[in-house]
């Protein structure tokens, strides 16, 4: 087997496992690199507090770095918590002759609020910046090192200019602290206009170690030979997935789920298998043919942390029926098989994360009456109201319509169906939302039961 590129992390140990060396090594491993480490301090912490910090002597920190580099072919390195001026100076000396890219994450304060950088270390940290290919401060850190307040985009640009003057090749100011719908990080390179890197914001309290994770992921990309922009994009995508797949660990803010890519692989196999079994049950569902529209139906099922079309599975050939009412499932389950249904599920999940699947059925007076008799909660949209500037991407009208219907509903968590009367050349549909396959199939059976009566 080919050797893995080595990434050296120089940071503190987090006994809670969510940040620092522990987060770095998990990230580096998940992104296909080999992690080596030089520990700068030992902390006693959990999701609520940092109750103690014991720094390693500057000489021993330097010895760790020198020993690793003397034997192992380091392809990239990153720094995290360095704690004191003396440790920073020893790290700068040890890395002075480096031949690999360096990412400096100028960690100052833990997510819990504990200070991780001594007062006298702020100026010393700037001594490390000229060695950095990239520094990755968040807004409070950028304010500290640029000695200015950052409230606007123009402030970000000014801070980038000031920080670039301290010597790094590039600056990435992370925008997670801004109150905005999207989280925007700004990359500044000397002589170039700042470049925005936008990611959908994830609503979660589990953000402990996000800075460590992002910088370790960027270093991993650089170690694999990626250019800076590609490495940042890949790191953002990994972190966003890890945040969406996060879970509560303790009483406070937990970390992102660093194992998310590996876990998603297993989840994909499970979703495809469950969708296949659902298809088999639908072929045996008596009376289902009454619900199949002219353009046939499809069932879509999303991964627990779905954010894009390729995270939603559907049948590649749709579901139809013969004149005798025999149900035929065309094709096989695959992710990204139906952009239309994927967008319905993704939009529904934005308003109600418990929704995991959906199916499109026929729209007519009898079915609408059955929907009402079942007591299903309805949400409606009308394509006649769609904006003129709506893009022509496949399924964009459904994305707009589903979000429109749910955004204006009084209690979106109770919506069972999204109704769409269609438009000129566009077939009307009733789309049933389900928490899981069992919920979806039960709703289909209830509708069929009312239609029979």
UniProtKB/TrEMBL annotation:
Domain Thiamine-phosphate synthase ThiN, chain residue ranges per copy: 279-445
Keyword Transport listed: no
One Gene Ontology term, aspect cellular component: cytosol
Entry-linked Gene3D superfamilies: 3.40.1190.20, Class II aldolase/adducin N-terminal domain
Span of domain Pyridoxamine kinase/Phosphomethylpyrimidine kinase: 14-256
Pathway(s) it belongs to: Cofactor biosynthesis; thiamine diphosphate biosynthesis
EC number: 2.7.1.49
Keyword field: ATP-binding, Kinase, Nucleotide-binding, Transferase
Keyword hit for Membrane: no
Record-level GO BP terms: thiamine biosynthetic process; thiamine diphosphate biosynthetic process
Domain of life, per lineage: Bacteria
InterPro entries recorded: Aldolase_II/adducin_N_sf, HMP/HMP-P_kinase_dom, PM/HMP-P_kinase-1, Ribokinase-like, ThiN
Segment forming the signal sequence: none
GO MF, one example: ATP binding
Enzyme superclass (EC): transferase
NCBIfam families documented for this protein: HMP-P_kinase
PANTHER family registered for this protein in UniProt: HYDROXYMETHYLPYRIMIDINE_PHOSPHOMETHYLPYRIMIDINE KINASE THI20-RELATED, PHOSPHOMETHYLPYRIMIDINE KINASE
Name recorded for this polypeptide: hydroxymethylpyrimidine kinase
Lineage: Bacteria, Pseudomonadati, Thermodesulfobacteriota, Desulfovibrionia, Desulfovibrionales
